[in-house]
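Q: Could you predict the 3D structure of ABC transporter ATP-binding protein?
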Amino acid sequence: MPDSILQVNDVSLAFGGVKALTEVSFAVERGSVFSIIGPNGAGKTSMLNCVSGRYQPQHGLINFDGHDVTELKPNDRARLGMGRTFQNLALFGHMTVLDNIMVGRHHLMKNNWLTGPLYWASPAQKEELNHRREVEEIIDFLDITHVRKAVAGTLSYGLRKRVELARAMALKPKLILLDEPMAGMNLEEKEDMARYILDLNEEFGITVVMIEHDMGVVMDISHQVMVLDFGKRLITGLPEQVMTDEHVKRAYLGLEDDSQLEEAS
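A: Sure. Here are the predicted structure tokens for ABC transporter ATP-binding protein:
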């Protein structure tokens, strides 16, 4: 059996009488790129929010790297090695790129309010230098050295997306959750982001779970794809298998019977 870093078992989520997810189960193999796709309103972001701890499902279990994290808060999941980016940018617009990324190191720092006042006489100074060294490596990896001291809110959308990815990488995650990392980007920016995601997966060994609408990107970089529709899992499999599945075609094209499906093919 493959080594699964993430296991989601029968997760259901509802808001009042509206069901966002219904008994969704899947497993993500360690070291893979796993994409979640589906029409708008299919429950993709709700699923990511359950995995990251922003939402608490009413039913089901979530296991991450051998730990039952179903009831853990997002910060506790981050300490276990789970990083996250958001569909809507969540950067501190008034802070520099470097400071935004350093925020991602916060839970790794041993310095606290007791040792802080003794900064120059404690290991805190050396600790901060080590963290800054690793952050500079991430900045270099994502080619944002030229904006490292720029205020995040002044950057282009594509660069801000890259900074948010850098902050998630600064957590030193085993698993990173990407919510539409290429939304709003032009073709060149999408190609760059796809390359960075592949590199962080292959060079850093980070497992990736990604929501993405660009089917070209999904097909090119995913090891496995799961399709959600109306909060239910339609299929999980290899990209080429998923893209040729009739149920998937119906979900995306809105076709109701096989004759319509053949006409659209």
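Q: Anything worth pointing out?
A: Residues 257-265 have pLDDT under 50 and may be disordered.
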